[in-house]
């Protein structure tokens, strides 16, 4: 009876994961979907703790360790989530994803120990009694090895991605690094196959663990700039696959389903991100786009002439426009200006101006970064225009207000075959009648290349912190 109840709980949890994931694709239902998935996970965890039985019919008994870990992890996770700034959200996602990979790797380490110790005893007895020794009891070894390799790579890669996103780790590459990485990966796979056929070799197991950690570091180090959202998504899929390996080892259907869903969703998102950038995954991993600056060298002036616009002129231009499109970017998140931006939007609408937001799929530092940013400020979901829809409307837009975005509005992606971002779909803001760009300075964006949009005749630069600039704009508009 208990087993059937446990199965039902796992089924409910699995269905809630699927429903939650489906609802996450709709901004209006995303929060509800997140809560449903969290509820399903809670049911699966509690069912495992109180209803699970091992092969000998024993329940779990180490409740102090279990609930101690849940309590500590819950407190740390809650505090981290509440204190994290919107600009640091990608870093937190990467860090938490790395913890998932570490858990999967630790499961493999623990299960290897559980399998090998009895096997060593059986082997010793077989040698003592001069009898044959069968390895049929080690049939789960391939899953343990896969969980170890994938989880370790995900953990190490996510930690490097976290460090690069917060600026503590710089891009690093050397001639032939990709060949070295491929060679290291081949060695890891060869050792894994060898361990599969000869499992009683703990040193080899831990060598694989160490090399997988090293590979995770070397895998992410050369990748930088605008490719980080793709890397985060890819590492997320790795963690999902590693978690699915753990679910297979424990015959835990909820863990297996959740891991498969995360792995599949992460893979599909990675493919979609690459499509949005008009690049192949191979090009992202080998090209290292954004890892080396191709823009203005330190100390040099940008090539071309740009014009600045005063606050009063910008206020007039926005107030008397029929249609305004706002393009949010990472600079808006850095300045924590989403609430002030929403205030400007409402003020312009009270003056009869149509205001919408143009969202590029890779704007910010992770997929959906701008959507989350604006949702926090209660911007209506129907005002968020996807790239294709926004591009159709720029031709009829009087003013585009670019707030901290750079690479996603760079016309070089369409006009300059020598540019590293050539071919990447962009928000075609250059088709609007007037463009106001708010930036702190003329420095290149995250991809490290100069933006020719800033030097076009219809573009005006409004320098300064996004929050301060928007507050001053609102004050000017109120005086009109």
UniProtKB/TrEMBL annotation:
Reaction it catalyzes: NAD(+) + NADPH + H(+)(in) = NADH + NADP(+) + H(+)(out)
Record's subcellular location: Cell inner membrane
Gene3D superfamilies referenced in this protein's UniProt entry, alphabetically: TPP-binding domain
EC numbers, comma separated: 7.1.1.1
One Pfam family, short name: PNTB
Membrane-crossing residue ranges in chain numbering: 5-24, 36-52, 64-81, 93-110, 143-167, 179-197, 203-223, 230-250, 256-274
Membrane topology of this protein: Multi-pass membrane protein
SUPFAM superfamilies from the UniProt entry: DHS-like NAD/FAD-binding domain
Alphabetized UniProt keyword annotations: Cell inner membrane, Cell membrane, Membrane, NAD, NADP, Translocase, Transmembrane, Transmembrane helix
Domain NADP transhydrogenase beta-like as annotated: residue spans: 7-475
Superkingdom assignment: Bacteria
Family according to the record: Belongs to the PNT beta subunit family.
PANTHER family on file: NAD(P) TRANSHYDROGENASE SUBUNIT BETA
Chain's role: The transhydrogenation between NADH and NADP is coupled to respiration and ATP hydrolysis and functions as a proton pump across the membrane.
The protein's name in its UniProt record: NAD(P) transhydrogenase subunit beta
């Amino acid at each position: 009876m208990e087993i059937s109840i446990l199965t039902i709980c796992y089924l409910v949890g699995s269905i809630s994961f699927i429903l939650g994931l489906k609802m996450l694709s709709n901004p209006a239902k995303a929060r509800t979907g997140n809560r449903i998935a969290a509820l399903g996970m809670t049911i699966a965890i509690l069912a495992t703790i109180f209803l699970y039985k091992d092969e000998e019919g024993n329940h779990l008994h180490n409740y102090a360790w279990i609930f101690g870990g849940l309590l500590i992890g819950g407190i740390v996770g809650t505090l981290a989530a509440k204190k994290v700034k919107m600009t640091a959200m990608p870093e937190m996602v990467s860090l938490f994803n790395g913890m998932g990979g570490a858990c999967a790797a630790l499961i493999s380490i623990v299960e290897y120990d559980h399998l090998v110790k009895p096997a060593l005893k059986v082997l010793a007895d077989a040698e003592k009694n001069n009898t044959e020794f069968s390895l049929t009891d080690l049939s789960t070894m391939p899953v343990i090895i896969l969980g170890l390799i994938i989880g370790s790579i995900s953990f190490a890669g996510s930690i490097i991605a976290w460090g690069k996103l917060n600026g503590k780790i710089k891009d690093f590459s050397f001639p032939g690094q990709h060949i070295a990485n491929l060679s290291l990966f081949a060695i890891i796979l060869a050792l894994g196959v060898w361990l599969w056929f000869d499992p009683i070799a703990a040193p080899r197991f831990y060598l694989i663990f160490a090399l997988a950690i090293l590979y995770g570091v070397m895998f992410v180090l050369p990748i930088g700039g605008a490719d980080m959202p793709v890397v985060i998504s890819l590492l997320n899929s790795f963690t999902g696959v590693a978690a699915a390996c753990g679910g297979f080892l424990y015959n835990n259907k909820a863990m297996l389903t959740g891991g498969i869903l995360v792995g599949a969703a992460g893979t599909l998102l990675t493919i979609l991100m690459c499509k949005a950038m008009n690049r192949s995954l191979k090009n992202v991993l080998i090209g290292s786009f954004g890892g080396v600056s191709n823009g203005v060298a330190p100390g040099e002036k940008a090539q071309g002439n740009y014009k600045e616009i005063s606050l009063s002129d910008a206020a007039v231009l926005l107030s008397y426009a029929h249609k305004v499109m706002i393009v949010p970017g990472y600079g808006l998140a850095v300045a924590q200006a989403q609430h002030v931006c929403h205030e400007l939007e409402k003020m312009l609408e009270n003056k009869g101006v149509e205001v919408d937001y143009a969202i590029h799929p890779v704007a910010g530092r992770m997929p959906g970064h701008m959507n989350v940013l604006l949702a926090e400020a209660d911007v209506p979901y129907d005002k968020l225009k996807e790239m294709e829809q926004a591009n159709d409307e720029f031709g009829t837009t009087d003013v585009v207000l670019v707030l901290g975005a750079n690479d996603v509005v760079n016309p070089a992606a369409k006009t300059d075959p020598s540019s590293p971002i050539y071919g990447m779909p962009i928000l075609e803001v250059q088709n609007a009648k007037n463009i106001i760009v708010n930036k702190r300075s003329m420095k290149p964006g995250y991809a490290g290349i100069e933006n020719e949009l800033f030097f076009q005749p219809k573009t005006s630069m409004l320098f300064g912190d996004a929050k301060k600039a928007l507050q001053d704009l609102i004050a000017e508009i109120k005086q009109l």
